[in-house]
């Protein structure tokens, strides 16, 4: 692979043909990235550190009545209505601090004040200057449906984003809705109405979300609404839908917690996971009666229990095959963590286990424990690779990298039996260190995969930065590919882009033959899902025989 002028790896030209010039290669790559970005957005903008537009593409003529070129040199603030400019200012501040911006609503400065979803990424330049990439995509005029927790661009992530902003939210309110038969699980349209009712009248960018059936969250800013009023709104929506229910409400302050931003966001993430899992009882059991600081204080003993669990390797691994879509033969296996409940530490679900590790700062120790277990399994295999998930935090850790390299040097042949899947569970904060890690792994023949591609707004950035072997496509696109032309186009584009960077594509969560067929026809080479095998033990053929 060679390095293009834009900093993106591009394959050399075919033998016997004249290769395009570096300028031509860079131009093609820029056009490709712009095309893919506009597949999910109406307006694509690059701005400088002062918030002035330096590049513009998209439907400016249709949306704003003037062409994209006329916006060069104008402030980004001019794009939105006056009441939303404070939000744009907050977005620019966040980008200057090298943080990505997850989707949030703004309104264009047009007569109809068209609602748009805004996302953004910082784009450091080689000359040390800072640029910002902003994408604006159309939203429905009506409030969009609120998403369940499995959606990677969920209420939980948006709440964390608000907490990282300079002003931040003031409070988190949690609601549990029960009826005669337990938790109430209304239709999706009623869930959307509940979200609209919770955010109605709030001019401070309130966000609401469904955390689990019958459980909802609301992040509020300076204009905190009364809990009794909010509970009554939920009851009113349910009553109009023909359902009677009782609404229990709980609130905690997010302002002046005395915690660092990292501590506060980790604690918030765990609070939402705990409430989704067990409601208010779980919140109280986890120590959140005293808010986020209360959890941090009460988690000390459980953190020590988790540290012992990791040190003693009290967990197991399950292995799921990734197969070639044409021959259905196993190409490699992904190792999946399965916690074993222990006295004083009853977490059984993998996601809860990982979330707690992140909340108390043990994710690097968790990753190392799993990596060692995977390495032991891989050392006993015959011509089989096993993929291990590593968080962005560990990928950027110098200490973790040095330990990993010593492991590879001490076990001959291990590198050719290992793969690494880079997850976005913890965002990569030190991108330069992560690039170094990937380069060192690949130099030692450890293949690297970018996990859950398409699930988060940083996916294209990581694909551009990290020289990888595989891209794992988020399962949401697999489900949508059967009936959604836009999802099919996205998948085809990712296949083409990945191929140009020398990477193959894996599609996850394939459960039916129909899904496997359409994914294969779109050019995806590998698949993973229940259709090909559930997580379990490594097959005998993959192990050394005694």
UniProtKB/TrEMBL annotation:
Residues 1-10 have a biased composition (Low complexity). InterPro entries: Cyclic-di-GMP_PDE-like, EAL_dom, EAL_sf, PAS, PAS-like_dom_sf, PAS_4. Residues 299-546 form the EAL domain. Gene3D superfamilies: EAL domain, PAS domain. PROSITE patterns: EAL. It comes from the Bacteria. CDD domains: EAL (cd01948), PAS (cd00130). SUPFAM superfamilies: EAL domain-like, PYP-like sensor domain (PAS domain). Residues 1-23 are annotated as: Disordered. This is EAL domain-containing protein. It comes from Roseomonas elaeocarpi.
């Amino acid at each position: 692979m060679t390095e293009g002028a834009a900093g993106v790896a591009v394959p050399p030209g075919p033998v016997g043909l004249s290769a395009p010039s570096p300028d031509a290669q860079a131009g093609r790559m820029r056009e490709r990235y712009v095309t893919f970005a506009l597949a999910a957005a109406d307006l694509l903008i690059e701005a400088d550190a002062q918030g002035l537009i330096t590049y513009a593409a998209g439907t400016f003529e249709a949306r704003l009545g003037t062409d994209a070129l006329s916006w060069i040199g104008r402030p980004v603030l001019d794009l939105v209505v006056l009441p939303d400019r404070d939000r744009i200012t907050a977005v620019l501040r966040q980008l200057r601090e090298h943080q990505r911006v997850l989707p949030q609503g703004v309104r264009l400065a047009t007569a109809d004040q068209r609602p748009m979803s805004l996302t953004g990424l910082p784009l450091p330049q080689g000359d040390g200057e800072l640029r910002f990439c902003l994408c604006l995509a159309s939203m429905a005029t009506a409030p969009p449906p609120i998403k369940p927790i499995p959606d990677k661009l969920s209420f939980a992530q948006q709440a964390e984003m608000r907490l990282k902003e300079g002003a931040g939210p003031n409070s988190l309110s949690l609601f549990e809705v029960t009826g005669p038969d337990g938790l109430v699980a209304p239709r999706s349209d009623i869930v959307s109405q509940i979200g609209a009712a919770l955010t109605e009248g709030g001019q401070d960018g309130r966000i609401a979300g469904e955390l689990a059936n019958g459980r909802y969250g609301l992040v509020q800013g300076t204009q905190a609404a009364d809990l009794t009023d909010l509970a009554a709104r939920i009851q009113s929506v349910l009553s109009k839908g023909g359902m009677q229910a009782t609404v229990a409400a709980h609130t905690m302050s997010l302002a002046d917690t005395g915690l660092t931003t990292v501590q506060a966001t980790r604690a918030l993430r765990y609070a939402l996971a705990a409430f989704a899992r067990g409601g208010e009882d779980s919140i109280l059991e986890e120590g959140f009666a005293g808010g986020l600081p209360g959890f941090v204080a009460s988690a000390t003993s459980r953190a020590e229990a988790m540290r012992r669990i990791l040190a003693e390797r009290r967990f197991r691994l399950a292995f799921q095959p990734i197969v070639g879509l044409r021959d259905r033969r196993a190409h490699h296996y992904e190792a999946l963590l399965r916690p074993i409940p222990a006295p004083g530490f009853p977490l059984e679900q993998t996601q809860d286990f990982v979330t707690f590790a992140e909340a108390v700062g043990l994710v690097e120790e968790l990753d190392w424990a799993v990596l060692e277990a995977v390495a032991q399994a891989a050392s006993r295999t015959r011509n089989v690779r096993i993929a291990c998930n590593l968080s962005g935090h560990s990928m950027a850790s110098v200490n973790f990298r040095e330990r990993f390299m010593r492991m590879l040097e001490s076990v001959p042949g291990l590198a050719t039996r290992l793969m690494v899947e880079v997850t976005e569970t913890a965002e990569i904060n030190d991108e330069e260190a992560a690039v170094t890690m990937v380069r060192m792994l690949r130099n030692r023949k450890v293949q690297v995969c970018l996990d859950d591609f398409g699930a988060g707004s940083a996916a294209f950035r990581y694909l551009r930065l990290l020289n990888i072997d595989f891209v794992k496509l988020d399962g949401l696109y697999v489900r949508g590919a059967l009936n959604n032309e836009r999802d099919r186009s996205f998948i085809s584009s990712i296949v083409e882009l990945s191929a140009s960077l020398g990477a193959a594509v894996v599609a996850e969560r394939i459960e039916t033959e129909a899904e496997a067929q359409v994914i294969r026809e779109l050019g995806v080479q590998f698949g993973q899902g229940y259709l090909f095998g559930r997580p379990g033990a490594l097959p005998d053929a993959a192990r050394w025989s005694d």
